[in-house]
């Protein structure tokens, strides 16, 4: 009995104490002239920490209001009244608060006298937007420094941008391309204070943007919207400098912006900067000794280049002491009420580099292991130029024509020397190799496309047609001089030499046409049917000539091929897109029927190969609440083996590593699942982005390698099952303090993948896992101090089934 009485008294005391801690807030809402009260005004009190609403009241007939029983803390007070601008204020409650008379002004007056600040981050549809002035940078900083301060974006030392865990492929300026596909020219040469807004989105293809039905072709893109005052006038930069003797780096960037007309030019002379191509420009310049043909995801055909010792792209573009002379001009204009729009650019590069590297590798076999040490020295030079032009004509309000054309020309000279040795676990030599390769190559390519689009009066009804043509030509010649020596038990066993002239000539033409029809279904749906036809012809000649009596005139058929290739592909599919205020969803699929014909002129044989490809896609995006989205994406596709993988010939560019084709390869089937969530809270400056993905491949292309006791390897592509890749990514940032000047962020990701191959006929399953975690803290004060500190560490493991005792573990920071 006493026990129960004690509990009741304690409970009453607790309630009493709690009641004593509750506080009231009162005030009076009036017009600015104080001539009359704003009766029935809406008053909302919410916690400043998480925007949760604590109380809602209305003003009485005299404009008075009172909010009772408010716990101590910081709150956001919001007062609303018809035809009046909202009144917002931060209120710190420690005792009873009388706010007195709160004056409100009409919206008309507010528009004339008040600057209204919008949310620094907002989500509109699929586009995430950042107001640039809300993220302070130093005076004179470029856009790259601004991007480093935006939540969810990261920029590495090369200027490569990652947004929400995915690499950004393109940076636009006011929706227009800026020097093609080298984003660093925009991010490093445009001042941050010129930018009004930074938009991040997944850019769809031109046809998908027009029809509104997703075709699965997207690339992560940033658009820099400039301030009005930045669109008129001159700006630029000049930088000149050097370091040690004979070192220099001189830069020039000049811009003339006048309304919709933009002219930009740049130049660079340097022998201290990275001389390699930026961000995938490699595909636009030059070819290689290993040109292959492969089925594209949409059922089309594309020319691919496989890196090798003779290919400047794979060995020299980021290595050595550089000397670079580069420059370019970009032009954009719109006129006649934007009915005409043109964008063009020209770029030139003269790059040379010399350098060396040393690599130590460990090869783990089922019953043994050996170590390989290799030293490489490279001398390379390349001259390149590229011209591109885009023209968009709005014929009338319902139809338009888009023309794209670009050309690339390249000339390269590469000289490589390699010295390697393979050692057994006891340090005894297994083999030694000295190899020299050279390659002189000229290449050019032209690609053009025309897209006609027509909209009809009925909602969602459109018709579009696309025509494309591509041409590429590569002429190359190089030498391979190789000497191998082999040992058994550390004793010299044998020796072989290779002295060959290698020629490479490729001529290709590609034709394609695509027709798409859409129709509105109900008020929120669109359905699309599409058909595409592709035709490609390709003449390829890769010849190896042995040196006999001082002349390279004896054809080596084992390492040569000469063939004419042609393909025809019919691709058709259907897609559906649903869109309302909160829910957006799409579903579609395509099927492609392809036939390849390969005429082997050296062997006088013909091979016919038929493929049936399937591509599926689905996506759902749901807006849970303002500034909060949940997205799910699914993509499925089949992939064909390329010609080099199928063709039963040997590649001896490295005589210790022979590659052999496999004509029995099957299609692989790839499925990708991705779930992501994004949220931003304005009052607390809190941003959350997280994603999960899973990728699985059936009949994946892998390698079967046979390694003999002398360290020689023979590799062939095979199909395997059980390969997968899965992982996740998260990013969290939050402002701290009343003005949110301090901010904290953390990010992390994990990846786990399973890869299967064959080593000397034994199944080998390799499991690779890595996890990383990063932290950052920063502070900005426009007039006093700005700083940002970030740290990231990752842990990696790799384990193979053939040698589970030889697990690889390492840290990265």
What does this structure look like?
The protein has 813 residues and is mainly beta. Helix content is 6%, strand content 66%. It has seven helices and 45 strands. The protein has a 27-stranded mixed beta sheet that branches. It has a six-stranded mixed beta sheet with strand order 8-9-15-16-13-14. The chain has a four-stranded antiparallel beta sheet with strand order 3-2-5-6, with no helix packed on it. Strand 44 and strand 45 (808-812) form a beta hairpin. It is globular. The two termini are 65 Å apart. The model is unreliable at 5-20, 112-117 and 275-318 (pLDDT under 50).
- Secondary-structure class: mainly beta
Strand content: over 45%
Low-confidence stretches: 5-20, 112-117, 275-318
Give the termini distance in whole angstroms: 65 Å
Indicate the percent of residues in helices.
under 10%
Taking the sheet with the most strands, its summary is: 27 strands, mixed
Count of separate DSSP helical elements: 7
- The total of beta strands comes to 45
Radius of gyration from the CA trace?
Answer: 33 Å
Mean pLDDT: 80
Overall shape: globular
């Amino acid at each position: 009995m006493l026990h129960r009485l004690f509990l009741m008294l304690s409970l009453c005391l607790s309630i009493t104490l709690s009641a004593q801690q509750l506080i009231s807030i009162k005030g009076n809402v009036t017009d600015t002239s104080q001539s009359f009260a704003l009766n029935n005004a809406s008053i909302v009190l919410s916690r400043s920490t998480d925007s949760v609403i604590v109380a809602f009241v209305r003003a009485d007939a005299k404009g008075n209001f009172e909010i009772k029983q408010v716990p101590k803390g910081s709150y956001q007070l919001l007062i609303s009244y018809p035809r009046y601008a909202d009144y917002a204020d931060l209120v710190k409650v420690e005792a009873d608060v009388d706010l007195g008379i709160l004056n409100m002004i009409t919206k008309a007056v507010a528009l004339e006298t008040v600057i209204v600040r919008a949310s620094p981050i907002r989500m509109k549809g699929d586009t995430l937007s950042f107001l640039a002035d809300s993220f302070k940078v130093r005076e004179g900083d470029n856009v790259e420094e601004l991007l480093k301060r935006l939540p969810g974006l990261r920029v590495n030392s090369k200027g490569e941008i990652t947004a929400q865990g995915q690499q950004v492929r393109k940076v636009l300026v006011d929706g227009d391309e800026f020097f093609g596909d080298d984003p660093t020219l925009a991010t490093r040469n445009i001042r941050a204070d010129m930018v009004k807004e930074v938009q991040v989105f997944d850019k769809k293809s031109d046809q998908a943007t027009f029809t509104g039905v997703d075709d699965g072709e997207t690339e992560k893109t940033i658009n820099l919207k400039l301030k009005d005052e930045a669109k008129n006038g001159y700006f630029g930069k000049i930088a000149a400098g050097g370091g040690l003797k004979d070192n220099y780096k001189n830069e020039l960037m000049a811009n003339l912006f006048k309304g919709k007309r933009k002219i930009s030019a740049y130049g660079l002379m340097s022998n201290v900067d990275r001389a390699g191509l930026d961000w995938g420009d490699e595909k636009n310049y030059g070819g290689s000794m290993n040109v292959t043909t492969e089925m594209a995801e949409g059922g089309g055909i594309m020319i691919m280049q496989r890196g090798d010792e003779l290919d400047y792209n794979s060995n020299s573009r980021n290595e050595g002491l550089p000397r670079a002379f580069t420059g370019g001009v970009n032009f954009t204009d719109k006129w006649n009420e934007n009915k005409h729009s043109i964008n063009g650019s020209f770029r030139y590069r003269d790059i040379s580099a010399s350098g060396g590297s040393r690599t130590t590798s460990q090869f783990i076999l089922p019953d043994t292991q050996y170590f390989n040490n290799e030293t490489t020295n490279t001398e390379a030079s390349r001259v390149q130029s590229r011209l591109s032009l885009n023209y968009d004509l709005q014929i009338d309000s319902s139809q338009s024509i888009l023309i794209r054309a670009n050309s690339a020309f390249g000339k390269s000279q590469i000289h490589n020397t390699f010295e390697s040795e393979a050692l057994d676990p006891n340090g005894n030599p297994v083999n030694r190799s000295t190899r020299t390769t050279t390659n002189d190559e000229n290449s050019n390519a032209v690609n053009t496309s025309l897209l006609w689009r027509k909209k009809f009066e009925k909602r969602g009804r459109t018709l579009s047609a696309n025509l494309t043509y591509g041409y590429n030509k590569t002429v190359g010649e190089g030498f391979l001089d190789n000497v191998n020596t082999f040992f058994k038990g550390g004793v010299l066993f044998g020796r072989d030499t290779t002295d060959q002239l290698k020629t490479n000539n490729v001529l290709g033409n590609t034709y394609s046409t695509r027709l798409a029809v859409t129709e509105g279904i109900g008020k929120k749906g669109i359905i699309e049917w599409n058909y595409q036809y592709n035709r490609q012809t390709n003449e390829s000649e890769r010849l190896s000539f042995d040196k006999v009596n001082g002349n390279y005139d004896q054809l080596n058929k084992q390492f040569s091929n000469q063939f004419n290739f042609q393909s025809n592909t019919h691709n058709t599919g259907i897609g559906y897109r649903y869109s309302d205020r909160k829910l957006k969803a799409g579903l579609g699929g395509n099927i492609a029927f392809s036939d390849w014909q390969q005429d082997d002129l050296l062997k006088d044989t013909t091979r016919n190969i038929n493929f049936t490809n399937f591509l599926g896609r689905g996506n759902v995006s749901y807006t849970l609440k303002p500034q909060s989205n949940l997205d799910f994406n699914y993509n499925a596709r089949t992939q064909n083996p390329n010609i080099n993988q199928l063709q039963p010939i040997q590649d001896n560019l490295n005589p210790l590593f022979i590659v052999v084709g496999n004509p029995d390869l099957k299609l692989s089937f790839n499925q990708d699942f991705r779930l992501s969530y994004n949220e931003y809270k304005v009052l607390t400056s809190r941003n959350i982005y997280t994603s999960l993905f899973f990728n699985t491949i059936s009949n994946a292309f892998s390698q079967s390698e046979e390694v003999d006791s002398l360290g020689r390897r023979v590799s062939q592509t095979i199909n395997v099952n059980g390969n997968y890749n899965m992982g996740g990514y998260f990013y969290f940032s939050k402002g701290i303090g009343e003005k949110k000047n301090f901010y904290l962020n953390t990010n992390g990701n994990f990846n786990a993948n399973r890869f299967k191959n064959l080593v000397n006929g034994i199944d080998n399953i390799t499991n690779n896992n890595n996890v990383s975690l990063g932290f950052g803290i920063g502070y900005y004060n426009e007039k006093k101090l700005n700083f940002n500190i970030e740290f990231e560490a990752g842990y990696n493991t790799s384990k193979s089934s053939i040698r589970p005792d030889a697990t690889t573990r390492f840290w990265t920071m």
